[in-house]
Design a protein that fits this description.
It is built from 16 helices and 22 strands. The chain is of the alpha/beta class and 544 residues long. A six-stranded mixed beta sheet has the order 14-15-16-19-18-17. α4 packs across α6 and α15 packs antiparallel against α16.
């Protein structure tokens, strides 16, 4: 099995993922507070979790994924008052829209999506356990977690006590034993929703909700807890403290979740998204102007732990990337020089023509447009090219025939002797087929005809007998960062070194300078007396 490695916020290092139970992996993600439309930042945690869950399901037999809905919170209460609508009407509306938004982003729903209001008894039971274990206390109708009773507090976020006080932004109330103590239960007045409890009529604290729902649906410990970096403190720190306190496992900070994964935050044109700046981008609004795939690609465009800058430019770039991808996918070009098993094995040096043909049939079945590229080789496949044209017509494939180019050391083969001018080949093919010139042009150098007998399209690429260099607009980048301006020239630009040593501006200049050196014609040599070639590399080196 492939070994999965995860960056664990609990240990601040990459670790091999070892599930608690290899037969059942369990994962929890903090979900939204449903009082308004979700903003684009709310979509990044479920995107990260969606990708992770897909990977886990590929590796493990069973995966349970839980993501909650917070449907009781002061923000929801305030929204209810402002809109003069029942809380349930508001929460159901925005929960529905949130789930619809995620679906449009291509995010699969969780296996379970518990609501906070459905787990009040579990929350009350956890508070009782915390008080019994000496980690919580009651004061003026409040249930409060006593932070000083848990020496491991701050282990997840790495904050000391002063940082905790500053970062928590909680009310420093007189009923607290310590300013950093946080609320487990708060009283509700008459016009606020609430539930009966041993500490009076009230409602749970936000942090307690996730602790209760995650344990109810997954048990503890579970494998992975995910969420945004903004939840690292105080929310996740408090979740961890609550669980350790409930089960009295203060010496084991992994007794709640084994691995913690936090995604970076989203910024808008370099600034933090906030209501005060007026730059909040709601998912629902974005989906009115862009398709979900485009937005998903933007959300995936940087490493999940890094900040993501959201802008019109990044959306446009992602749309262009998708357009290029789909153009590539919709049009499949396959190099196939023969339909003879033995010849195929000899030409390719690995054989298995049946696998290629089977793959072509599957590509055809799913609706891809297929074009066969064949190199004309004198004495090798010249006698069967007509049959290949007929076969392509039967299968609904287009075909392009290419003159052999004298490139690279090809061992015992003598491609200089296999050169076949396509003008001669076309003349021979015209005896069997009626080839009708058509005006179609693509970004490449091929000239096209229609084969009247098959209805198919046939292209001719003639780099030697008909030099098309002056109209060529192609450059090729290798996987090692070399930019070749021409298949028929050895001249290249080492862009990788420039980028590493001098940066992006120098890279742009290097690209411009290289393209300015693009030749008007190639240096391919057909010289049967010397057998020499001016280009020593194989075509696949430059992406041919």
């Amino acid at each position: 099995m492939t070994q999965l490695r995860l960056y664990n916020s609990l240990t601040n290092q990459k670790e091999n993922f070892i599930p608690i139970d290899p037969s059942h992996v369990r994962l929890y993600t903090c979900g939204p507070t449903v009082y308004n439309y979700a903003h684009i930042g709310n979509a990044r945690p479920p995107i990260v979790s969606d990708i992770l869950v897909s990977l886990l399901r590929h590796l493990y037999k069973k995966v349970t994924y839980v993501s909650n809905i917070t449907d009781i919170d002061d923000k929801i209460i305030n929204a209810s008052k402002e809109q003069k609508k029942p809380i349930s009407e508001i929460t159901k509306k925005y929960e529905k829209i949130y789930n619809e938004n995620l679906s449009e982003l291509g995010i699969d729903p969780p296996d379970f999506q518990p609501r906070a209001t459905e787990h009040i008894p579990e929350m009350i039971d956890q508070i009782k356990a915390l008080i019994k274990n000496g980690h919580a206390y009651e004061a003026e109708g409040h249930g409060l977690f006593s932070v000083n009773t848990f020496s491991g507090y701050g282990s997840l976020s790495g904050r000391d006590k002063e940082e905790q006080i500053a970062g928590s932004r909680v009310e420093v109330a007189p009923y607290k034993k310590d300013p950093i103590d946080f609320i487990l239960w708060k009283p509700s007045i008459e016009d606020q929703p609430g539930w009966d409890s041993p500490w009076g009529f009230g409602r749970p604290g936000w942090h307690l909700e996730c602790s209760a729902m995650s344990e109810k649906t997954l048990g503890v410990p579970f494998d992975i807890h995910t969420g945004g970096q903004d939840l690292l403190f105080p929310h996740h720190e408090n979740e961890l403290a609550q669980c350790c306190g409930v089960h009295n496992k203060l010496d084991d900070i992994s007794s709640y979740a084994q691995y913690w994964i936090h995604n970076g935050m989203i910024r808008f044109d370099g600034d933090k998204m906030s209501k005060s700046l007026g730059n909040i981008q709601f998912i629902n609004d974005l989906l009115n102007d862009h398709n979900g795939e485009t937005l998903r690609l933007v959300l995936m465009s940087t490493h999940y732990r890094q900040p993501l800058n959201w802008s019109a430019k990044t959306i446009d770039q992602s749309q262009k990337t998708l357009d290029r991808l789909y153009r590539t996918i919709r049009n499949l070009n396959i190099s196939l020089d023969t339909l003879n098993d033995e010849k195929f094995a000899s030409i390719t040096r690995w054989g298995k023509l049946d696998q290629v043909l089977s793959g072509l049939q599957e590509a055809k079945r799913v609706g891809l447009k297929i074009k066969i590229n064949a190199v004309a080789l004198k004495g090798v496949n010249d006698e069967e090219l007509a049959d290949m044209i007929t076969w392509c017509g039967q299968e609904g494939f287009d075909m392009t025939i290419i003159e052999v180019m004298p490139m690279g050391d090809i061992g015992s083969e003598r491609r200089l002797d296999q050169y076949l001018p396509l003008s001669l080949l076309r003349s021979n093919l015209s005896r069997k087929f009626n080839l009708i010139d058509i005006p179609e042009r693509t970004a490449g150098p091929a000239r096209y005809v229609k084969v009247q007998e098959t209805g198919g399209k046939l292209g001719f690429i003639t780099p030697l007998s008909h030099n098309f260099c002056e109209s060529c607009n192609r450059v090729r980048m290798t996987c090692t960062g070399e930019l070749f301006m021409c298949l028929g020239q050895d001249d290249n630009a080492d862009l990788r070194t420039v980028l590493r040593e001098k940066g992006e501006e120098a890279l742009k200049e290097a690209v411009y300078n290289a393209i300015n050196r693009k030749p008007k014609g190639h240096d391919f040599i057909i010289d049967r007396r010397s057998g020499t070639k001016s280009v020593a590399r194989h075509m696949n080196v430059t992406g041919g």
